[in-house]
């Protein structure tokens, strides 16, 4: 358990990172991640100054739950910007973009995983790590850069939704294979439960507008915040308990509240809550990063970054074109989807469950270290590519002339 002083140090470090980002005029996300690395036991915990151990912050239950809440609120805000009718109207474009993304990045992930780790199961795990983009980090960047209201947001959000639906099925299969309980019936049941829960949420969003509206029938800001947070966190927690991504659940809840006509009020009141827990999520990534372990697989991480950055750019660009966007905005889609994050780390945790069983301890450790290093590299790279997208947009416009925006 973490004491109040430790949590105070954590938030003080986060505040200093925000000051640094303002001074450097850059995105705060990479600085949050680096801050987590600096204060972690792997770095600060190994330092001794004049005979005294430097205090470090471990990944406590508070940090883990805070990170999960960060994912939940980021995806909830994403849902607030995405009308369910728009999602249904664009299902064909979303499916095309999603299939392109899965075929290119899942395929290259399988091949790369087998070449790097030498087994079919390791290749399957690596495919998931390479395929899935970070909904949480990308959402934060979309909001910070103001892209959330632009045309490129639709294919990015559509692709992220498709990925999250795929990953719900993927994780059910991965857990069964890694645990050695690859019984087709149990795998099938897990998949059916996950899809049924997602389907129920979609139906609730489509027909439950009066219910969401009734929840917000209050002039009290306090009551509104408590009701929205209560519903969102409960549904996300329920989803996680039955094996469905809490991110997917929070996204659908956000779409439900988007139909109430009180989006602006919800965003204004809950934005500080989102930003606090989002900061904890990004710091958590840094806390999970052991530089020594990552250094041992640095070559593998470098190969993966070099190979998979262009594939995400290509699939995102093609996804943007599937939505009818011009080259500039399609390039933004590709740049925006480069970032990997929370789901890659979840797959790494699944890999460790198979250590000594379905995976050798060495391979399981290497996969986990690879995932952490890969997330660190791709989260920083993807965030910076979005922030400094102009040269790539001009290149796309020159290479693929079009009258579309």
Task: Supply the key terms.
single chain; 405 residues; mainly alpha; Na+/H+ antiporter like fold; 2 domains; two-stranded antiparallel ribbon; 19 helices
Could you walk me through the main structural features you see in this protein, from its secondary elements to its overall organization?
The protein has 19 helices and 2 strands. With 405 residues, it is mainly alpha-helical. It folds into 2 domains: 4-53, no CATH class; 64-399, Up-down Bundle (Na+/H+ antiporter like fold), CATH 1.20.1530.20. It has a two-stranded antiparallel ribbon. Strand 1 (48-49) and strand 2 form a beta hairpin. It is globular. The N and C termini lie far apart (52 Å). The model has no long low-confidence stretch (mean pLDDT 85).
SSE layout:
Blueprint: H1 4-24, H2 28-39, E1 48-49, E2 52-53, H3 61-80, H4 84-89, H5 91-117, H6 120-131, H7 135-145, H8 153-179, H9 184-207, H10 209-215, H11 221-241, H12 246-258, H13 263-287, H14 291-296, H15 298-322, H16 327-336, H17 342-353, H18 361-387, H19 390-399
């Amino acid at each position: 358990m973490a004491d109040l002083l430790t949590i105070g140090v954590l938030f003080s470090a986060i505040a200093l990172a925000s000051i640094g980002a303002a001074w450097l005029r850059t995105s705060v996300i990479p600085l949050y991640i680096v801050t987590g690395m600096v204060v972690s036991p792997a770095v600060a915990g190994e330092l001794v100054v004049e005979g005294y151990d430097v205090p470090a912050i471990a990944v406590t239950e508070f940090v883990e739950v805070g990170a999960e809440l960060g994912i939940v609120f980021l995806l909830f805000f994403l849902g607030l910007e995405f009308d369910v009718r728009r999602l249904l109207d664009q299902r064909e474009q979303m499916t095309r973009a999603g299939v392109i993304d899965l075929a290119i990045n899942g395929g290259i992930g399988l091949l790369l995983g087998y070449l790097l780790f030498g087994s079919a199961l390791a290749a399957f795990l690596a495919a998931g790590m390479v395929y899935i983009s970070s909904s949480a980090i990308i959402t934060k960047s979309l909001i910070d850069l103001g892209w959330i209201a632009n045309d490129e947001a639709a294919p990015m959000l559509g692709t992220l939704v498709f990925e999250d639906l795929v990953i719900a099925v993927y994780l059910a299969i991965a857990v069964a294979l890694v645990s050695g309980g690859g019984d087709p019936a149990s795998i099938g049941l897990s998949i059916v439960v996950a899809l049924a829960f997602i389907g129920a949420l979609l139906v609730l969003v489509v027909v439950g507008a009066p219910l969401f509206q009734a929840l917000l029938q209050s002039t009290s800001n306090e009551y509104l915040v408590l009701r929205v947070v209560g519903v969102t966190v409960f549904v996300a927690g329920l989803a996680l308990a039955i094996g469905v991504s809490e991110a997917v659940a929070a996204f659908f809840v956000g779409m439900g509240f988007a139909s109430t006509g009180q989006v602006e009020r919800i965003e204004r009141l809950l934005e500080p809550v989102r930003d606090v827990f989002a900061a904890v999520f990004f710091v958590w990534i840094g806390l999970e990063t052991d530089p020594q372990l990552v250094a041992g697989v640095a070559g593998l991480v470098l190969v993966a970054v070099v190979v998979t950055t262009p594939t995400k750019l290509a699939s995102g660009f093609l996804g943007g074109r599937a939505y009818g966007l011009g080259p500039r905005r399609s390039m933004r889609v590709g740049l925006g989807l480069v970032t990997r994050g929370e789901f890659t780390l979840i797959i790494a945790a699944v890999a460790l469950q198979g250590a000594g069983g379905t995976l050798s301890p060495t391979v399981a450790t290497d996969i986990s270290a690879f995932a952490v290093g890969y997330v660190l590299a791709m989260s920083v790279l993807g965030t910076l590519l979005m922030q400094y997208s102009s040269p790539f947009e001009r290149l796309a416009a020159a290479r693929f002339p079009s009258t579309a925006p």
